[in-house]
Amino acid sequence: MFWDALTLQLGYNATLVTIGATLLGIAAGVTGTFLYLRKRALVSDAISHATLPGVGIAFMLMVLLGGDGRALPGLLLGAAVSSWIGLLCVSWLTRFTRLSEDAAIGAVLSVFFGFGIVLLTVIQTMGAGRAAGLEGFLLGSTAGMLFNDALVIAGGGALTLLAVIILRRPMTLLAFDPEYAASRGVNVGRMDLAIMALALAVTVVGLKVVGLILIVAMLIIPPVTARFWTERTDHMVLISGLCGGLAAWIGASLSAVAPAMPTGPIIVLTSFALFVLSLLLAPNRGVLAVYLRHVRFQRRVHMRQGLLALAQGQPIYEAFTVRLLKRAGLAHADGVPTDDGRARAAKALLDEKRWELVRADQAFESAAALYDGLRDIETVLTGDQISEIDQRIGGPQGVTA
Amino acid sequence: MSGEEFVPLSLTPMLIGVLAAVACALPGNFLVLRKQALIGDAISHVVLPGIVVAFLITGLVAAAPMMLGAAAAALVSVVMIEAIRRLGNIEPGAAMGLTFTTLFAAGVLLLEQSDTSSVHLDVEHALYGNLESLIWLDAIGWSSLLDPLALMGLPPELGRVVIALIGVVGFLWLFWRPLVLSTFDESFAQAMGIATNRLGVALVMVAALAAVAAFDAVGSIIVIAMFICPPAAARLMTNRLEHQVAWSVVFAVLSAVFGYIFAGYGPLWLGFDNAVSAAGMIATVSGLILMLAACCAPHRHRSGAPVA
Predict the structure, then answer these.
(1) B306 band by pLDDT with thresholds 50, 70 and 90
(2) Which residue spans within A14-86 are E strands per DSSP?
(3) Distance between CA atoms of A112 and B252, rounded to whole angstroms?
(4) CB-based contacts of B133: which residues, under 8 Å, 6+ apart?
(5) A223 to chain B, minimum CA–CA distance in Å?
(6) Looking at the complex, does the CB of residue B279 fall below 8 Å from at least one CB of chain A?
(7) Domain count across chain A
(8) What is the domain extent for residue A355?
């Protein structure tokens, strides 16, 4: 059954919803990347909460005009207008008053949301039963979605994705170096607004699927996940879109199989699972990789200290060092060096002396800058340079009586 | 309106609203100054999973386990934000957004999957609260305020909000100087021997206490609004912290009182029959106050900014 849903075998509507959600997830992941790189991830929180009054007002207007209050395009239009106003409030508060952006975001999201709740209670008293669909905007529901609704979502997701693809160059420039972007002729203010508008589009389109409280997660979690895997923006955009799309696809499929399961939370939790996997397992920035790197570093320090101690005939008290040396076949369990160990220790001591000279000599300044206590000198200097230093150290000399 | 109607139906909800608003606005002052305003947002979202888990474990819809669950969830979220931020080297805003949405999603999923339909526990309730239902049925008029028997029948939420408010005030009173120092000049506070990290966590925990007690009575919307709007408006009124705190209390009380009145009686004045959500209206009024302050408060501009 679940496999059927994943492979889009569950009827026309479920298929459309799944495709729509996946497109939305990709669009959200891609847009969110720029939001995250611009360090404005939480602005999406204000955007999403600010949609609620618009939904309420649109519903009331449509009912007053004699139409069906639940027509999705109208509601989404209202949501877009009111969250645009919320966005302008955030940037106005940040720019013209002394309030910082986080306070502005918090104020806008709570006030707009509170006002939205007031409107919802008004609607509940207007015409009993007709407002039933509006609560779905809080947490999202794909159950009972109409064909036209699914079409709107799929179309909106695709359009947003297209806009991101067109604008990706200036947005990348802006995310990393606004001044440089301005000097290249990018209108920074307008491009910032464009990023926000794209986030807004994703939010509005996603309202019906995941709800306004959780759409934030679709914009934030995939970029954070993607950041673990790469140091390049273009790759990050791709990975983020992939994560977002994957999470939405799995989430929508699961909820198509079990209609009682709300789509939004499942998509978010799938997304979070991907994040945790990346946090632990990512090759360079992941927790496991960092831990392994730390352990390797620790071993190298112990090894070097052990070898230097062996070379100078000092006893080694550190049990871990002795174990390392023994495992490498350089020392016996009691800390006495093997022949191999003696050779390596002598080399370590010689390298130490070489480094000492290198660091004392202005001519080797650039090489000396690379000294960190562990680096092999052969990786920094050429053979000729090393033999030049060795000449300065000099060989063993006879002792005059 | 007569006392016979006002005391049982409106006095306690209004009082609870005011106390909850003040309890949130007080720590909110420091959160806003420390640029941690959205911690309040995060806490109020994660209260839901805390309450659901407490219910699933104990099977009771009682105040004590739920408050404990909510407080535990707040602690978990703070630890999780910090862990994600440090382990993953992720900027704080994104770590916060990631944490609270995930915990909230988990709470919603647990709620939908478990058999909680028989009890009064749902997402809408968590968001809006039920301020209007906290009535005092034993009261018959103003004289009931002196009647010990009637006082026994006060809604228990009132007592919890009072305790939370006392806790918040006590914390601020005890740690006022170190809090102020670490808020404005963290390095100096450290040099003076103040454990700034621990103080920061303590502040967040106190905010969580206020949030949980207020949440129980009034829902999470007010909590976020009261954490941020009154202190932010107060910030625009003055350059002195003591005055800012006083202004924020005034604004919180004004929002709660007028919000409640507009929600309960406003629609009647306009000719409708039904009241609207008091929690939502209180948040709206606090937003209007902030808007007024942003337009004409004396210290609304950044110091040094050109006067337009």
Answers:
(1) low
(2) none
(3) 17
(4) none
(5) 9
(6) yes
(7) 2
(8) 288-393
pLDDT category at B120 given cuts 50, 70, 90 is low
CATH number of residue B98's parent domain: 1.10.3470.10
Task: Encode pLDDT of B256-295 as tens digits.
Answer: 999 988 888 877 777 677 778 888 899 999 999 999 999 9
- Compute the half-sphere exposure of residue A123: CA atoms within 13 Å on the CB side of its CA: 28
- Note whether residue A275 is domain-resident: no
CA–CA dist A265, A217 (Å, integer): 10
Tell me how far CA of residue B121 lies from CA of A191, B38, B59, B124, in angstroms.
Answer: 44, 25, 12, 9
**Shortest CA gap B62–chain A (Å):** 26
pTM of the model: 0.85
Q: Which ranges of chain A have pLDDT less than 70?
A: 1-2, 5, 8, 10, 69, 127-133, 135, 141-146, 259-260, 401
Residue A273 lies in a domain: no
How many Cβ atoms are within 10 Å of A37's Cβ, its own excluded? Answer: 21
Pair B37, B96: CB distance under 8 Å: no
A268 contacts B105? CB cut-off 8 A = yes
Measured between beta carbons, the chain B residues lying within 8 angstroms of A117 are 127-128, 221, 277, 279-280, 283
Q: Indicate whether B172 belongs to any domain.
A: yes
What are the C-alpha distances in Å from A55 to residues A120, A203, B105?
9, 13, 22
Cβ atoms of A57 and A82 within 8 Å: the answer is yes
Report how far residue A82's alpha carbon sits from residue A86's, in angstroms, rounded to the nearest whole number. Answer: 6
Return left, alpha or beta for B24; rule: phi > 0 is left, psi -120 to 50 is alpha, else beta.
alpha
Query: What is the tally of helices (H) and strands (E) in chain A?
Result: 18, 0
Q: Answer whether residue B251 is part of any domain.
A: no
